[in-house]
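Researcher: Here's my situation. A collaborator sent me these components and asked whether they could plausibly form a single complex. I don't have experimental data yet, so a predicted model of the whole assembly would be a useful starting point for our discussion.
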Amino acid sequence: MGTVSLLADEDLSPEAAEVFAEIRAARQTDYVNNFWRALAHDPALLRATWDRLKVVMAPGALDPLVKEMLYVAVSTANSCSYCVHSHTAAAKAKGMTDEMQAEMLAVVGMAAQTNALVTGLQVEVDDAFKA
Amino acid sequence: MGTVSLLADEDLSPEAAEVFAEIRAARQTDYVNNFWRALAHDPALLRATWDRLKVVMAPGALDPLVKEMLYVAVSTANSCSYCVHSHTAAAKAKGMTDEMQAEMLAVVGMAAQTNALVTGLQVEVDDAFKA
Amino acid sequence: MGTVSLLADEDLSPEAAEVFAEIRAARQTDYVNNFWRALAHDPALLRATWDRLKVVMAPGALDPLVKEMLYVAVSTANSCSYCVHSHTAAAKAKGMTDEMQAEMLAVVGMAAQTNALVTGLQVEVDDAFKA
Amino acid sequence: MGTVSLLADEDLSPEAAEVFAEIRAARQTDYVNNFWRALAHDPALLRATWDRLKVVMAPGALDPLVKEMLYVAVSTANSCSYCVHSHTAAAKAKGMTDEMQAEMLAVVGMAAQTNALVTGLQVEVDDAFKA
Amino acid sequence: MGTVSLLADEDLSPEAAEVFAEIRAARQTDYVNNFWRALAHDPALLRATWDRLKVVMAPGALDPLVKEMLYVAVSTANSCSYCVHSHTAAAKAKGMTDEMQAEMLAVVGMAAQTNALVTGLQVEVDDAFKA
Amino acid sequence: MGTVSLLADEDLSPEAAEVFAEIRAARQTDYVNNFWRALAHDPALLRATWDRLKVVMAPGALDPLVKEMLYVAVSTANSCSYCVHSHTAAAKAKGMTDEMQAEMLAVVGMAAQTNALVTGLQVEVDDAFKA
């Protein structure tokens, strides 16, 4: 499968190898998952994606676990199977319990349902909601 | 606009009026937003949606603000304009600061981008991510 | 609004005018809605769309009202506001009652919810469902 | 695969086992498909989903086969592979012939095409379509 | 897999066989891919799809490779795994280099990200952009 | 409308003002469109988005007009009304003729249709398409 091959470490360009080294250091594991191995064909995109991901997912006004669950929610709505798998695993690694996963999924399902109802009914935005 | 009219209080069936009374009591405001006024044409769906929403959005393993931000994230991914407006307003009412909103949006945007990259690359799920 | 203008009857190419005449005859009304007026900039696409639409929406194994409700359901899932409006109007013209609309919307909402749950859970297809 | 395991009958909570018993009785088969086995990790969501599904899919102003085809159409638009498989199987079990499936798919494809054209053209909603 | 079987050459109706012959002639290969073999259950839809595809993808104001990359971009946004695979292969056959594929994917990812940001921010359309 | 206000020049942070100056210089116009004015509430996201957009949309293996049409195609598939308006305007500014726009839209519509058919049929990926 895949529209590009997954690059092994020995096939990486120096720029891509540098990003892989940073991923390994940041995550404290030797394992680099398939997404990065596919992206490595384009070292500039790999670099830009990794650099931005680090910033976006870092602790801030929201904690990293909340951010990871937001990532799973969006990936679910976008029907990205790989992304649901990888970010669910990441969320579990950051402390998402079975209860938290179940509640997150219930919200995602509820939102999908009311999104569809609102669209089917073509409800106008209340003035009260306009910034 | 709308594929159905928005029902005024005096046009509600007794079953719908009962749900509206519960919404007003739960939210401690007389204001009932357009979604419910459109849904009120089908009192059974109105009842089922309200009953389930209360349960799903209640405090649990996740706090209500996190749930509201998950709702906004899914609504954004599903391109539901009304839902983005109404749940962003709800999240602000529950304490979402400008910084939290900005970080949430940054995660939503990042997820949308990597979802698209993964789909375009057709990356295979790593064995490590399979439950 | 619009990324192209809406063509008035006097601005139509002969090929587009011919399609408009067919739309008016088939629908037994002088009114031609905005979709066709936007599409008329590309007479070949206008012709292909109209010709195919007539065939697809004609009575067959499914009756036209069922087909129109399927159209609304897909348009809702695809977040196409114009399409929800126009095909809901068409479904009503073909006999969709308020009860039928409400039941259709309830199915659309239910499907959106379980679609999201299945994607979030990444449920594997049962062997029993494979053709 | 899956972000949760599929629960076997012997792993069910009493609440989940009760829902499974109802599914078996309603469908008159011992077979319970994977969706329910994944959902069973959250007995409250399992219960809510099953209870609501029974009501929404019951005969009413629309017959169950029409509802099932609407379900397939939405699942297709939402790119839910599992859902397309399971609800196509359900529709066939309720009497969907090959001709009906072909006509349904033709409508789904036509709707997807014109949804995209309308969005690309950003056609404004006709006043005639506003409720 | 599949909600219908893939038809072998010997199972085709005369109308479907005729379309297959045209596909083979146009593509100068004996290989007919699975999409057409699934679609062949509905010869009228097969004919309509093939006839229109030939016209839409033919050289015109845009060259066929650009059209093929647009096809991949839309298929990616619509999460159609099969379509991403088949149209990426077609684009490569028409001359898409690794660099072109990488740049196309970078645009698709960027667009997905800003689409989400715009929707989350609910930005109003500038008057300057209205046709 | 909007879930945040649109910032006027005098309300910008120094970091945001710097990005606005770069946008004005790059585009050789004083006009800065609403997307950037909404994004300016988060100067870091504004900076990251602008910096990356410049790189992604620059001439390379694909010319800027092709990239802009890919952007419109994805925005259409993602139902982002603002994005369709703004990137269609940008494509026209870069030389997209009416014929090119019509052909692009025809491809987008065709892709949406066959994406839906493939998903409804659940066609398996041909071995020939696997990289």
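Model: Some features of this prediction you could bring to your collaborator: Chain A touches chain E at residues 1, 3-4, 41-42, 45, 74, 78-80 (CB under 8 Å). Chain A is about 65% helix and 0% strand.
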